[in-house]
């Protein structure tokens, strides 16, 4: 599975989190923000930078998220691509290549930034250091750093504006930064379950990881 798929698979496990208790103020504040989201949908602009801060690529599209671990992430520009999960199976559809990559949603995929939305606060604090910064009266930034440094990322940043998830960024072990800015976000609206299941079009090549 490509870097894009691993990255957002990580995010969505993150979106599955149900946090139970906290004795750390930053983790407790993050819990409140995450607990307020059962579904989320909107648009995104995702930009990747190299370790020198030079832009490498940019993509945009729309998304839908639902707890636990369900997501629909559709890239429209510059090349179409669709990533879908029902928390059991992940489909990555590339219409230009006419391929569908299918992967089981296994435990190893939870060893990613998305863990933040799938685990309780005790597990979160066991695996990450959490820092909170109030940027202004309506903006909060949470920086999560893994306590074990041999994983796929070095740091994850979540930015909330007026209680709404507005952007996130992930820095990988090579210093590459991927930043995703969300727009037209709607929270806790009803989303049909069928949005999180994908039927491969006839004639496409099916690849199984």
UniProtKB/TrEMBL annotation:
Swiss-Prot/TrEMBL GO biological process terms: lipoprotein localization to outer membrane; lipoprotein transport
Residues of the signal peptide: 1-21
One Gene Ontology CC term in the entry: outer membrane-bounded periplasmic space
InterPro entries given in the database record: LolA/LolB/LppX (IPR029046), OM_lipoprot_carrier_LolA-like (IPR004564), OM_lipoprot_carrier_LolA_Pbac (IPR018323)
Chief location of this protein within or outside the cell: periplasm
Keyword Heme: no
Keywords for this protein: Chaperone, Lipoprotein, Periplasm, Protein transport, Signal, Transport
Statement: the UniProt record of this protein carries the keyword Membrane: no
Cell compartment(s), UniProt: Periplasm
Function: Participates in the translocation of lipoproteins from the inner membrane to the outer membrane. Only forms a complex with a lipoprotein if the residue after the N-terminal Cys is not an aspartate (The Asp acts as a targeting signal to indicate that the lipoprotein should stay in the inner membrane).
Subunit structure, as described in the record: Monomer.
Family under the similarity heading: Belongs to the LolA family.
Name used for this protein in its record: Outer-membrane lipoprotein carrier protein
Gene name of the record: lolA
